[in-house]
Structures are given as C-alpha cells and as structure tokens.
Design goal:
- The protein is of the alpha/beta class.
- It has nine helices and 14 strands.
- The chain has a six-stranded mixed sheet, sandwiched between helices. A two-stranded antiparallel ribbon has the order 1-9. Strands 2-5 form a two-stranded antiparallel ribbon.
C-alpha cells in the first residue's frame, strides 16, 4: 500500500522542546527500568573482553599476550591468560502506534506529537554507552521496521519513520494491536527493553500478548491520552468521527445519561489498561496532551 495513507494530521504541533539536560536526566532511569543495572552489565554468551573472569588457563600459541595474568604466571612459573565474560550493550525496541486515533488532541498538542517525542527521547537514550535501538511501526497499512542499530544512523532512520506521520482516517490497521506485539516478540530475540507507545484504544487481546513479551523483556507501556477522551462536555448535538472507520455519527451530548454512560465506559477501559500492564509485570507510564509529557515520562520511569 502506498505511503500516501500516512500524513501530517491537521493541528500537528510537534513534541516541543526536549532540552539535552532533561533527556540526560532520564538516562539512568531508563537503565534501571531495563534491568536494574547499567546496559554494559548485561552478560553475553561466550568469552571475550570484559571485566568478569570466565577462565584462567595456560597460554597457548595464538593467545592475545595482553591477556597474560602476571600473578598466575609467577605463581605457577608458566604463562597463564585470563579470559573474561564479554559485555554487550542493551538493545531497546520501540513499538510506535500511528493508527488514526493518534491524530487527536484538544490541548497543547496531538497524541501523535507526544508519541513522537517519547519515541525520540527513548531512542536518544537507548544509544548511549553503545546501546542499540530498533523500532516497529503499527497502525498503518504499510509496516515500517528499523532493525536494531547504534549511533547516528539508527537515530536518523527512526526520525524518518516518525516524521512520516499518522494513518489517515478510515484506514484501519490491517492487523490488531495484539498481532503487532506478537510480531515484536519474534523480532526481539535477545532479552532487553521494549517500550510500547500507544493510546491502547484497541479491543484485541493485547494484554495476553504483552504478558508473553514480558517473559523475555522488561516492558514499559507508555499510554498517550487526551482529557477530552475521558468525558463528554455538554455541547448539544455534535457530529463525531470514528477515526478507524471514518464514519460520522451525530451525538446529543446534552443527555446526562449519555455522558454518564460514556464516562463509566471510559473509566472501565482505563482500569482494563492498568490491569493488563500490571499482569504483564510492565511499567505503566501515562502521558497527556495537556501536560508536560517529558517531565511525566521522567517521573514515570523512576
């Protein structure tokens, strides 16, 4: 399907300023959330350069003389080399929701603006200390996948995907949210950190898929919302659009009964989101279009 189905939604403001100092302050919070230790402490299989001793054995021809152990060599009167457990950097995956419902916002910015900011900040932090970042886009007809890489090339590729925008109204995703999470589980083979950025307005069995993902990875669920989604104002008869189907519906918001039913349904939906993330042993980080999302992201990751 053509990429023309992705576009900048009307009212797009962008995520706003992300001061380097504020981003740097989130660095250790991300590392702690990843595994309770710094990315360089994640152990890989085999032996190699590192700081933890894996084996001490006699020197054989071809060994790196820089690995000679003076103390063991002097004690045994025979050259010995030290082999260390290698260290590897943390791999972080971002699952970014660009479905039509993300092109909504009634305050400072759209939900897609906040999601773009969160994905950008996580990507910047993930590549520190030699870490790698990968991204998978969900919600559009055309899938976008950025394989895990480090450095500026990875950040540039992710920025290009983010700038492509949000799926147009009436273009429902070809697969549901649960399918996207399961696909991410297949792609992210090495244990690491996965950050799911979405409004979670999907009725599929995503909690079960998220729980399966958490068996191998630390999971952070970043939920983007707008205050107007939680309750209906008394504004008389209004026409609202379902972004997934593009269908317009006239609603009489003057009905107290309707407003109460809507608020109750929305409260139930939010409870189900919290329960789903908790059952997956993930970290729930709520961000809003009406608040300082960068500050809330840092607070949620502590």
């Amino acid at each position: 399907m053509s990429r023309s189905l992705l576009a900048d939604p009307p009212g797009r403001q962008g995520p706003g300023r992300t001061p380097p100092a504020a981003v740097a302050a989130l660095d250790l919070a991300i590392a702690r959330r990843a595994a309770g230790r710094l990315p360089g402490d994640h152990v890989a299989a085999g032996v190699g350069l590192g700081t933890e001793l894996a084996q001490l054995r006699p020197y054989v021809e071809g060994d790196d003389i820089r690995q000679l152990d003076p103390a063991a060599s002097a004690r045994t009167n025979e050259p010995h080399v030290r082999l260390q457990v290698p260290e590897r950097a943390l791999t972080t995956w971002v699952l970014l929701d660009v479905s039509p419902s993300m092109a909504f916002g009634t305050h400072t910015r759209l939900k897609s603006d906040v999601a773009a900011g969160a994905a950008t900040v996580v990507s910047r932090i993930a590549t520190r200390r030699g870490g790698r970042i990968g991204l998978m886009r969900w919600g559009a007809e055309e899938e976008a996948l950025v394989p895990p890489r480090g450095g500026r090339r990875a950040l540039g590729a992710i920025d290009r995907v983010i700038r492509e925008g949000v799926a147009a109204d009436g273009t429902a995703p070809p697969h549901d949210f649960a399918h996207a999470i399961r696909r991410l589980s297949l792609l992210a083979r090495q244990p690491g950190l996965t950050v799911v950025i979405s409004d979670f307005r999907d009725d599929s069995a995503w909690p079960r898929a998220l729980a399966a993902l958490s068996h191998r990875h630390r999971v952070v669920a970043v939920e983007i919302s707008d205050p107007r989604e939680h309750s209906l104002p008394d504004a008389g008869s209004v026409v609202v659009r379902d972004p997934e189907t593009g269908r317009d519906v006239e609603v009489n918001t003057s009905s107290q009964r309707l407003r109460d039913a809507y608020a109750a349904a929305e409260a139930q939906r939010r409870t189900e989101i919290l329960d789903g993330v908790r059952r997956a042993r993930g970290r729930h980080v709520p961000l809003s279009t009406s608040r300082d999302w960068l500050r809330d992201l840092g607070r949620g990751l502590r």
